[in-house]
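Title: Prediction job returns without error message
Component: structure pipeline
Severity: low
Priority: P3
Assignee: unassigned

Description:
Job completed but the reporter wants confirmation the result is attached to the right record. Sequence as submitted:
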Amino acid sequence: MTQKVLAPRAKGGSLDAEHVEVDVDQVALVRAPAQALGAAVAAGLKKTSVEVAVAYDGTCITMAPPVAGGAAARAAGLTSETRAVASDLLTRGVLVARAGVGFPAPVHLERFASPARLCVTDEPRLAGLGGIGMLTLVVPTASLARALAGGTVAVRRPVSLQVLLTGRLRPFVCARDVGFELLRRGLGDVVRRVERARGAPVVVEIAGTGVRGLSVAERAVIASVAPQVGAAAVVFTSDERTEVFLRDQRRSKAHRALHADAGAPIEEVLTIDLGAVDPLLLDENGAVRAVRDLAGRPLGQVLLGGDTGVTLRDLFAAATLLKSKRVPQRLDFLVAVPSRQMLEVLSAAGALTDLVATGARLVEPDARVLTGEMYAPPAGVASMRTFDPDATGNGSAPGARAELALTASAETIAYGVATGAIGDPRSFKRPVRITLPRALPTDDVLVARKPDRTAGPGTAAARPRDAKDSAAPLAHAHAPGDRREARTRTPGGEGRVATQRGG
């Protein structure tokens, strides 16, 4: 599948060389958008020609700087770098996902990601885009600038591993547990061994009969394991479930089928039976353990949501499992809904009300939630969250008590909220049946597509474009097929019934 994505984009249509120049479809700027933009402008960028280019503003909560001076404040991470250069980004054809739209990974999956395309980014946490069949590679800032300015990037020719999924998930076992199972089965060791032997980056391709039973969101949760196993990317097949997902997002024309051909070059194959996966968690030492091994350990904080590890179905399941229950007095229950779209759906269906009634505190989708700079694990008690560990530690900022942050599924989180301690979610015994709405809100109100001409002097508003630019439509504003389908739709349309897994 990796060859199918790269070969048509390679200069000359060949992947024979060790380093290959390929055309880029999408660019996602997350960590250093101003630096990438500056380098691109220096390289001659007037207006980017890539299909989609998006810069994400991850700073939802702003605070007064402790010292005078804007530079010091930015160094302390208190102001938004993306907001400061928003006008320049928009003038050059880069969309700006404003604060509050959600975490970059789930937002990009919903609104921009497309199968059989190539996306380059500076954020490893966007690996989950592989769940839709998009090859997502992390590249240096200089390469991002080159992609923005010229539409191409040089990549090392990768090699592929294959993971075959069979069977179906049992009740109270979800995609988060499958990702842990891949870690437990030593996928990281296999990736490192092949990388050393071949001297090339490794892409994990996931296929098999078990994939058909997984939604795109669940596939994205599994694909997000890429940074933890050391893979350059994880790519799923693109099939009818992918087409359904894009149709629900009003982007059906963006669909392309993607599957591995028989006899394609694969270094190694790992097979996972989904029916044999148990509820798992990642402990304070980064080891995968069965939830029952830590049963009874008291919790002081749980965080449901984040950018990886949870789907809309999981949030509905947690709300259903916790309905009419109350948070124990010693426990802080935080909910960071991954995207604005999910927030609207949960609110319209009443699930958000159920979570709040349980005692949940809603937190904004700020990037510092993922690093532990905000809502860090408290001292003296265990903390559990659904999102993957950050590169700076197990969900914690440097110097924080990262040893107390565990990672688990939404069902395990729900059990922890209900009892105040870690426990096997199968103790709920009776699975719940979840109906997800098919009509989703797709208004993109927090995605800026053109400069703000009304802003006054001294603001970060855009400089007016010339008449030619003003009349030209933003060809990259949506993924293919999105232009006529990006209408606002509210939840409540025809529903589809999920499988009777736990919650």
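Comment from assignee: result matches the submitted record. Residues 69-78, 392-403, 456-500 have pLDDT under 50 and may be disordered.
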